[in-house]
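The protein record filed here:
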Amino acid sequence: TVHLVLDRRGHPRRSPHLAMLQPACAALLSVATEKPLCYRENTDNNLALPHSSALSCRMKMHILALLALLASAPCASARHFTLVVDYPAGASDTLFARGSGCGLSWTSGRALQRADGGHRFTVTMDTSSCGAAETLEWKVTLNDQQWSGGANYRANISSINADASSFRAAPFFHSATGSYRILSSLYSSKLQNSRDIIVYFPPGYDENPYASYRDVVIMHDGENLFNDSTSFGGLSWRCQDAVEELIGENALHGLVIVGLYNTADRMDEYTYVRDANYTQNYPKGDIYLDFIEDTVLPYVKRTLRVDLDSPDARLGIIGSSLGGLISCYAGYTRNTYSRVGCMSSSFWWAEENFLNKLMPSRSPRQSVSFYLDSGSAGPGEDDMVQTEDVRNKLEADGLVLGANLFYYLDHGGEHNEYYWGRRFHEPLTALYAPVSARAEPAARARK
């Protein structure tokens, strides 16, 4: 069915998909002209309109003329858009784009033009070549021989308008591993302590200085994330292994992990309500989360190549045990995070306060994606039952499994760094799966 929207004068209104109507209009025109639309009545009343439509002959003739116009007229509403690629290619190198539509192919590339001999490469296209597709999946090649690393780029064609017509990429080609390093020790005047910040830089971060990252994860217990020599029990999560494996499988874009070391006040900082079973517990969870928002995030924006101001930015917070509890609490009570990972969370804390008191007092934001998991072995079966109860409550409050709620049960998994690291790919693929990027204003793409 083709719906034609007319203005008061009977002219078709402009539509970004008008070009897609032209083949259909031509077909309808061909069918419509096989028989006359109107017959002149004779005195015997033997002839009548061929259909019982309420449209008059004059209206039918108007529609016929409109179909002819649409079938023959050029697409005035096709919009141009630009793929913008930033990469420090050599002077003799050329970048190409391959893809699944809009005139691109996966078998051979379309050359991008270098701007002023610098690091920027562009190719301009128009929506008339995209047909009915709403998403363009594409990737960059170096000299049309070497694929860029990581997941394919996805451009939301339907987001193109007069004010936003660019899609940006900053690929890498020669990096298989990332790196991590301690950047600084940050002081909190409210907590009256300092802690180290360890940052993981994904493959390509050093290779392409023009890349900025919109996927960022804040994680707790930073000393346990990457390095066995600093980890509790001598065994770390080795988060880098999961990230690099997924990037190597083209299942993930690069993301930056910011790990906050814990302190002697770990129990207080990772709890928001007092548990009477711990007489020395003085909850500072809200102060700790304020520290992240007021000190850590400004430092991250100032120091690292991240773009957390983009509408496509995905800032997450992930932790395990009490770190999982404070992460879920942050996702429920703060507007800062759109991705929340709660692994083997201590939902038992304070007589299951999170489930019994906090969750009934407010509803989760539907724009936030929650990931929950647990093992099934060891003391308390790694809080498997309590985690399932929280999952069920989130579902009852409107979150949808597989959409903005994710759950994983690690059969046989126990409550320690080995098992959290072994399944770290689960929250990554759930919370940071590649999505279609919206078109950006040209001025923003020039940043």
Confidence is low (pLDDT under 50) at residues 1-55, 70-76. The chain is about 25% helix and 20% strand. The first strand starts at residue 80 and ends at 86. The two ends are 43 Å apart (CA to CA).
